[in-house]
Amino acid sequence: MNQGLLAGIGAFLIWGVFPIYWKSLGPVPALEIVAHRLSWCCLWVVGFLLLTRGTRWISQLLARPKVLRNLTASSALIGGNWFLYIWAVNSGHIVETSLGYFINPLVNVVLGVVLFSERLNSRQWTAVAIAAAGVAYMTVSHGRLPWIALILAASFGFYSVMRKITDVESVPGLAWESMVYFPLACGWLIWLWSQGQGSFLRIDVQTDALLIIAGLVTAIPLILFAIAARRVPLSTIGVLQYLAPCLQLMCGTLIYGEPFTPVEAVGFGCIWAALAIYTADGVGAQWRKRAAIRARPAAAMTAEAADAPLPQRDGRE
User: Fold this and answer.
1) What percentage of residues in the chain have a pLDDT greater than 70?
2) pTM: predicted TM-score of the whole model, two decimal places
3) Residues 77, 159: contact at Cβ < 8 Å?
4) Cα–Cα distance between 55 and 162 in angstroms, integer?
5) SS3 117
6) I want to staple 112 with a disulfide (CB 3.0 to 4.6 A). Which of 68, 93, 118, 298 is the partner?
7) Euclidean distance between CA atoms 224 and 222, whole angstroms
8) Burial category of 250 from C-beta neighbours within 10 Å (exposed 0-12, middle 13-18, buried 19 and up)
9) Helix segments in the chain, DSSP class H
10) In whole angstroms, what separates CA 153 from the centre of its chain?
């Protein structure tokens, strides 16, 4: 098993068990957890870059105003996504958060069509329609939209769009995104602590350690994902990404006892069927492409042999 595949599996495993981590910080308000996550993530990532690259990466970013504008927009999207996710986990909505990350790949498909004029074949449109039917069924059955799932999927989808159109490496990009929030997040935490309301240094040593490490566990899977993205085929990444919401769903139902009713079973079943169709179509396309590439040299050799002149007889046969 190559290093890229191991890195990808590691990234999605960490994201999959995130609910256990955030649940262990239950006494801390979600907004305060996010502020710690952003502040410590900034310190960890910027410190890593300063140790490994010096200050060159900062000057390179500052010389590209368009990149900085895009990263500032993406930081707002990922910050909002993190807040909603942590709030939902600690409020007993882990199952719905997993739905959001099951839906996310199909949201990316729709955004590709709308924003980048990408074309879908009939199988891909069928997958999108089945997923939409699953969401509609849960909406009608429960009498409300699964808004947590939809906002998580949409915010991460638009975040992916911003990172797609921004030519910047993953780690420096994450560093700038966290630096954008750092003054506000750190200042607010200091103010909370001065008012006797902050959780840091006031609950127990375990909580303090978990808040500090929150930045590290944010950065590590993103770095692992960046390694995997460079070394593993996109079709493999597409299959691996379902590992995280599967684990999140298991955490919600098996560890924290959240309900998984027949309505959820039908709705999730539609989403899973849609993902299976879309993934099979993508994997099949990759296999056909590779087969065509392998067939070209053989075809070229056959054509060359056909065009070659026949050997001349010398009359001694």
Assistant:
1) 91
2) 0.82
3) yes
4) 25
5) coil
6) 118
7) 5
8) middle
9) 3-16, 18-23, 30-53, 56-62, 65-90, 94-116, 122-142, 147-164, 170-194, 205-231, 234-240, 243-250, 262-307
10) 10
